[in-house]
């Protein structure tokens, strides 16, 4: 019998999840990411990601759909595909498929809170970009994880882990927030 969730129970971990984890689970190319995403539904974790993550996932899914239609269905060679990649011509049915797949994924993982991007975030993102070698999208994820007082920002991006933790260490923010690979998330 499933354990009933106590609304007053304090979460065991507060996590922010980077786009690559969702991508690995959605594509089913990473068993580790799929298992991790399934654990979210079982654990008493507070889980966040941003609307920006969802937009990145839409871009990835549309590019994949376009690739499949172009190269597989239409036998276009990869050089032709690469040159035409910026001129996607997905049908409304293709776009609906992409949308339905992403919506279904997030419906299955209802414990994930999507964070809206407030104006206050952008000052932090700018500061992180100015003070580190992080890409602006990684700075956005780090800023939101920091703002929501997360214990861990979960990613597979080794550069993000190294650079982000270096920045957190410089600004004495390592007491709580750590950037780590999915394999380093304690499972209690």
Number of domains: 1
CATH superfamily: 5'-nuclease
Q: Rounded to an integer, what's the Rg over CA atoms?
A: 18 Å
Average of the residue pLDDT scores:
86
Return the string of H and E elements: EHHEHHHEHHEHE
What name does the CATH topology carry?
Rossmann fold
Major β-sheet, in short? 5 strands, parallel
Q: Class, according to the CATH hierarchy?
A: Alpha Beta
Low-confidence stretches: 1-5
Strand portion? 5-15%
Task: Please tell me about this protein's structure.
By secondary structure, the protein is an alpha/beta fold. The protein has one domain (13-184): Rossmann fold, CATH 3.40.50.1010. It contains eight helices and five strands; from the N terminus they run βααβαααβααβαβ. It has a five-stranded parallel β-sheet. Helix 1 packs across helix 2 and helix 3 (51-73) packs across helix 5 (92-108). The protein is globular, with a radius of gyration of 18 Å. The model is unreliable at 1-5 (pLDDT under 50).
